[in-house]
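Question thread 4412

I'm putting together a teaching handout and wanted feedback from people who do this every day. The idea is simple: show students a protein as raw sequence, then show them the structure tokens that encode its fold, then repeat with a second protein so they can compare. Below is the first pair exactly as I plan to print it.
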Amino acid sequence: MAEHGAVRPILIIGIGNTLRRDDGAGWFAAEALAAALEAAGRPVHLILHQQLTPEMALDAMELQPVAILFVDASVAVAETTLTPLWTPAFESLADHGDHDLTPPMLLTLMRRLYAVDAPAWLVQTPARDLSHGEGLSEAAQQGVWAASALALRLLASA
């Protein structure tokens, strides 16, 4: 657990696969956001993974972050979005295995098992091309920049 009196970091979890073109936008946006926050003097802990895993709840317990940002690319959004996350009903976790966790499900594990009380948001960037390869489409690249700006404004007002 974080030491009493220690500065609590912002936990940023970038989700995606950089070898599937726009799916990597979550990683790139998370890295850009972490760099901008660190340059502004905010403590950050950055985690980059292809998918969410239950073990990430342990990381949150140890860090006791002041805020949590999940950053991911999505074909379901046309522009970058920032959505507050709430803890879903615990029963909704029963139908899912440990390899298809969503940000709200992982947040539920963090809160219920480890008393992580930080507010959380999902930052989604647009994804258009999920084929094999590296590099981002123009829409995904613009989403990376917009994600950092949105999240920085949110955290500046917190």
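The second pair follows. I'd like the answer to focus on this one:
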Amino acid sequence: MFIRGRIKMAERRLSALQKKLIEAMEKGSKSGPDAALEDIILRVSVTSGIARKELVWGGRQAALSIARHEIMYLAAVETSLSLPEIAERLGGMDHTSIIHGIRRHSERTGLPLPRGMKPYQPKSKP
């Protein structure tokens, strides 16, 4: 019973997020990198089932971090925003957090690193 209730609640939440995405698409989005980032956040929100507010201002739970890393990667690939600009729009993070998120998403999915980024290489001790 408990699990069925949680599933129904999750389905209602996802349905509400899908409605928001459809409404946003029907209104027509503004153009430019900020609009592109908003579209990315909305897409990830719908596919992950996590509310936009949680993605931007949420905590450190694994599901939130994974979804946030996906947003960071997609923003680097699909927008012309600089890493500090992406960081600012994702809750005032530091650009190094964006670099970390992009690398983690790339490692997790096997996708290539964007913008000529190099994989993390630990410094060797002398």
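Top answer:
Good format. For the second protein you could add a caption like this: Residues 2-109 form a domain with the Chromosomal Replication Initiator Protein Dnaa; Chain: A; fold (CATH 1.10.1750). Helices lie at 2-27, 33-48, 52-57, 62-78, 83-89, 95-109.
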